[in-house]
Design goal:
Length: 143
């Protein structure tokens, strides 16, 4: 049996005034957090910051790790395995300006995020992020 194609990505749950940024893809009804593949020689933290900038047009500061998610999917006839390293982040500059892959965005509180997200792994990560903020990892309020 052929081995799965391995992918390593990183992303961030961006807090803005106590709410989290979620993005809607324009090619399918899917609500997600900003994330993407690591580039050669890039650390997950660097990739998370870059992906938020590319996908949502804002600058963030990472506040801490939120763990990883792993899942498999098929693309054509090949099986793929993806690991995503997640980080809690706060917006420090800019206004949301989406790249063409996305068509909508929202800032949501915990119940709204959990209800809207498409993937169960993302809902679990969101729950960890909100728990982290309740435990003292507080995103700053944007000025």
């Amino acid at each position: 049996m052929a081995r799965a194609v391995e992918h390593h990505s990183a992303g961030a749950l961006v807090f803005v005034d106590g709410r989290v940024l979620v993005l809607r893809r324009n090619d399918r009804e899917e609500w997600v957090f900003p994330k993407g593949h690591l580039e050669a020689g890039e650390l997950p933290e660097q990739a998370a910051i870059r992906e938020v900038r590319e996908e949502a047009g804002i600058e963030v500061r990472l506040l801490g790790p939120l763990g990883s998610t792993e899942y498999g999917f098929r693309h054509g006839r090949r099986l793929h395995h993806k690991r995503v390293d997640w980080f809690l982040a706060a917006r420090v500059a800019g206004e949301v300006s989406l790249e063409p892959l996305f068509c909508d965005w929202r800032l949501l509180d915990e119940p709204g995020v959990i209800a809207l997200l498409t993937h169960p792994e993302d809902r679990e990560t969101a729950a960890r992020a909100f728990e982290a903020t309740r435990g003292g990892m507080r995103p700053p309020v944007a000025r």
